[in-house]
Amino acid sequence: MIPDAALCRYRDSQGGPYLGLIANGQLYNLTATGRAEYATMEAWLQAATGRVSAALADALAIPANAQPVGPAADLLAEDTGLQVLAPLDTQEVWACGVTYEMSRAARMRESQQPTIYGKVYDAPRPEIFFKATPNRVVGPGEAVAIRADSQWDVPEPEMALVVTPGLEIVGYTIGNDMSSRDIEGQNPLYLPQAKVYNRCCSLGPFVRLATEQFNPLAQAVECVIYRDGQPAFRGETHTSKIHRPLTELVSYLGRCNSFPTGIFVLTGTGIVPPDTFTLADGDVIDITFEGLGTLSNPVIELPIE
To answer: 92-302 maps to which CATH number?
Structure first.
């Protein structure tokens, strides 16, 4: 499923990356318009700051005066010369934890200090942590990684907010917050090692624009992990179960902090595989959000170098 009223970053046989618009089932090359705000995702997020409604309307008006590249479905088809990329270019990725009841319960089970997760679920201040620099993020079809020094690894399917430098939510995409549960469980201070490493996050394929027609808290979520071509785990949740307002998460992130090129914010997971499950090299993770599409990534193990 490819959402309408969405942005993407992509390459074609001639080059790229380009900023693309998906509207009415067609793909439009925004970068090819020559307008400075469509040169990159960074440029668009900066140009949208303080004028989100106008920026969304301007982008969605492009099809009236432009020819499409072709059907948007070609972005996901083979042998079309098109490759969808991770939607970010220079943005950091931050993440919010313990926003679903399921996540709180799972992290209390894994931790040797479980009470801290129970406390943060209802605390005024949410859990927010740094997740990834752009070079640690992969896009659709690229491999996410598990650490060779971890024995218990899981994906964390999450809705990601796309946020301007002015802390305004302009879109939504799919994120996979890879996590080494045994490392974090040993000691909460090990969280950066459990969360931040090469290929620790995937994003994409599309950024659904934050129009009135899309409700981010009314989307079904499914995660399927395939091993040797067969489902090894399947889980479901719904974004209505997110415990905190999305604007509250962004507001706390922006306290005493700035993001001059914009920011991607993961909003927590409500799908946790059983404690007996761990990812393995060669697995494939499919994360589907009802209104955002499917993010698929194979898994590799990173050696200790």
So the answer is: 3.90.850.10
